[in-house]
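Researcher: We plan to redesign the surface later, but first we want a full-length starting point. Tokens attached.
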């Protein structure tokens, strides 16, 4: 299964991307990340993770762990 990761899940661009993927009946999982546990994309995606701010030194390590765990093949970074 091909999984996609979308960052900044609370932003309008991410929400639009999630809705577009659902409209075309995307077969993989839509994985989202955001530093806000209440980001709207969390409720629209299949899998969601709360990550530190992108300015945190641990940010990319956590994102990489998520990519590996969820077998993400494509990133949409906002």
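Model: Full-length starting sequence:
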């Amino acid at each position: 299964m091909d999984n996609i990761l979308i960052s900044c899940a609370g932003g309008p661009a991410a929400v639009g991307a999630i809705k577009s993927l659902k409209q075309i009946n995307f077969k993989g999982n839509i994985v989202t990340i955001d530093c806000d546990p209440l980001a709207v994309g969390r409720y629209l995606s299949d899998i969601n993770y709360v990550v530190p701010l992108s300015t945190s030194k641990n940010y990319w390590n956590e994102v990489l762990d998520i990519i590996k765990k969820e077998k993400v093949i494509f990133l949409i970074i906002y």
